[in-house]
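Input (structure):
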């Protein structure tokens, strides 16, 4: 079931359809390259470190970890794992290639490299209509 696009979105040629399963690496920098796999590895390491504490291990094994605890722990771990996985030049490259660093003047649009696009494909960013 699709919903009609707002007129402004339609006027600049944006397709607001959902991304198909297993294709998020096309538009989400965090899913590009080895970053997603590394994040999962680092999340596992952070969980292991957390479970090294005897009180935490008891909560885990007795299933008494509250929803509030999980809401605090998981984003914290995800942030730490993401920062570790996206260190150095790789971080900027993932964002550039997914088109997540677009500028209003089009600077560096040539750095966008959509995975699976034909060789030489150039992303064309439509201009917003002047008001």
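Output (sequence):
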């Amino acid at each position: 079931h699709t919903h009609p696009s707002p007129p402004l979105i339609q006027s600049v040629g944006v397709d607001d359809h959902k991304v198909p399963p297993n294709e998020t690496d096309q538009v989400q920098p965090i899913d590009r390259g080895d970053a997603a796999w590394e994040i999962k590895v680092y999340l596992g390491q952070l969980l292991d470190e957390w479970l090294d504490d005897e009180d935490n291990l008891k909560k885990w094994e007795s299933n008494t970890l509250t929803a509030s605890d999980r809401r605090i722990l998981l984003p914290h771990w995800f942030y730490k794992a993401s920062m570790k996985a996206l260190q150095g030049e790789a971080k900027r490259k993932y964002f550039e290639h997914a088109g997540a660093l677009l500028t209003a003047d089009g600077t560096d649009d040539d750095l966008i490299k959509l995975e699976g696009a034909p060789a030489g494909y150039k992303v064309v960013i439509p201009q917003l209509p002047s008001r």
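Notes: The two ends are 33 Å apart (CA to CA). The chain has a mean pLDDT of 77.
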